[in-house]
Design brief:
The chain is built from 18 helices and 12 strands. The chain is of the alpha/beta class and about 400 residues long. It folds into 2 domains: about 5-295, TIM Barrel (Alpha-Beta Barrel), CATH 3.20.20; about 325-390, no CATH class. It has an 8-stranded parallel β-barrel, surrounded by 8 helices. α9 links the parallel β9 and β10. Bound molecules: iron/sulfur cluster (SF4) (2 copies). One iron/sulfur cluster binds near residues 311, 313, 314 and 329.
Length: about 400
């Protein structure tokens, strides 16, 4: 396993981090749950084969992911040998009804205590504010959430403070520059170089000495199953390399990256990932100019499949009903591009749960007037919703 420094923290982390958001599941009729035996076996296998970074969150797998990770690591003294990163989203802190606290700050503390209990540990190595973005950033500042996290750290409950982010670069940069974060977690992969936070974000985090953790290196798993036209581009490269390895190497190339998370759903996937990240050349600057050109052509080939011409400019936002229009279109386009809606459906499920689904649209038309691409947003939202709805978590 290759290891990298984790920002200024002094942690040395495995370049591959096990994401615990796509653990193996058992689906029965309209209910799904994690196959605990299989998940424990995979987590323990990872910890015993060089993986020392495990990422989970309050909400993953219907609030059970932290508990499953804690159960797996408790055995054999594995917990002390690894870094656990978990997250609490601002809306959960603010939800006084389900949190049980009298104030947002009391809730945040109760949720952390609950997380520690579930993870069977006295401390977290890294605690993130989950999914910071434009809709919540002002409230996070106003409510002094970072100060609350600092208090947790001064009590020894957490060691490093971080945030995860989905969205565009300008807000990311504002968040990054606001505080001396221990780490940040962003989406990057060979498709998203100019989307989401862009590779500019990676450089900016590196310059600050902030540990950079990459999520979605396989775009929800989609990059593992390319269409024939993409396979043909990869095929022009002489050596044998799987699409998964191409995707991982794209992110490994960045020296700013500390660890790359991937949610694994089977032991075979896990073993394949560990093998890729254990190669002697799975290091920063691992890509040649020829390989970078192949990746650029792979990206162009994928983009030729997009169907709704949304550029993600966000001029149509905010929608008075809360619909996150560009995110819906992006998930739909991913489904078309990757010839499978499975990963997009899963991520649309979470979008729906946070009140941003296409089905909330009341056809007021306000967004269409602002769209420079003249997209028939109302109609396209219906198409997208029909394709994306129905995931069972
Ligand atoms: S048409 Fe629908 S998506 Fe557009 S602003 Fe109105 S409610 Fe929101
Ligand atoms: S304004 Fe149009 S192009 Fe821009 S994000 Fe909204 S739908 Fe997409």
């Amino acid at each position: 396993m290759q290891y990298r420094m984790y920002g200024k923290s002094g942690f040395k982390v495995s370049a591959f981090g096990m994401g615990c958001m796509r653990l193996p599941r058992i689906v029965r009729e309209d209910k799904a749950e994690v196959d605990r035996e299989k998940a424990w076996e995979m987590i323990r296998y990872a910890a015993d084969h060089g993986v020392n970074y495990f990422d989970t969150a309050y909400g993953y797998h219907n609030l059970t992911s932290e508990e499953i990770l804690g159960e797996a690591l408790e055995e054999g003294g594995r917990r002390e040998k690894v870094i656990i990163a978990t997250k609490q989203p601002f809306p959960v802190m603010a939800d006084l009804k389900s949190g049980g606290g009298k104030t947002l700050h009391e809730n945040a503390r109760r949720n952390l205590e609950n997380t520690l209990r579930k993870l069977r540990t006295d401390y977290l190595d890294v605690y993130l504010i989950h999914n910071i973005g434009v809709p919540v950033w002002e409230d996070i500042k106003k409510q002094k959430i970072i100060e609350e996290y600092e208090q947790f750290r001064s009590e020894g409950l957490i060691r490093a403070i971080g945030f995860s982010y989905h969205g565009r670069y300008p807000c990311f940069k504002e968040v990054l520059d606001f505080y001396d974060w221990g780490m940040c977690q962003i989406q990057q992969n060979l498709i998203d170089v100019d989307n989401e936070t862009t590779d500019e974000a990676m450089r900016a985090a590196g310059l600050k000495g902030c540990a950079l953790v990459i999520m979605e290196p396989l775009r929800g798993g989609s990059l593992a199953f390319p269409p024939d036209s993409v396979k043909a581009v990869y095929g022009e490269y002489g050596g044998k390399r799987s699409p998964v390895e191409w995707a991982f190497r794209h992110v490994l190339d960045y020296p700013e990256v500390s660890t790359i998370l991937s949610g694994v759903s089977s032991m075979e996937q896990l073993k394949e990932d560990i093998a890729i990240f254990s190669k002697p050349d799975a290091v920063p600057h691992c890509l040649s100019e020829e390989e970078k050109k192949i990746i650029a052509r792979v990206r162009e080939t994928y983009f030729s499949f997009s169907s709704i011409p949304c550029t993600g400019c966000e001029y149509c936002l905010p929608c008075p009903q809360g619909v996150n229009i560009p995110q819906v279109f992006s998930k739909y386009n991913d489904g078309i591009m990757f010839n499978t809606f499975e990963p997009s459906r899963r991520s649309y499920f979470f979008q729906t749960r946070s009140g941003q689904a296409a089905s909330l649209c009341v056809s007021c038309g306000a967004c269409e007037k602002k769209c420079p691409q003249h997209i028939g947003i109302v109609k396209e939202l219906k198409t997208a919703h029909a394709a994306l709805a129905g995931w069972i978590e």
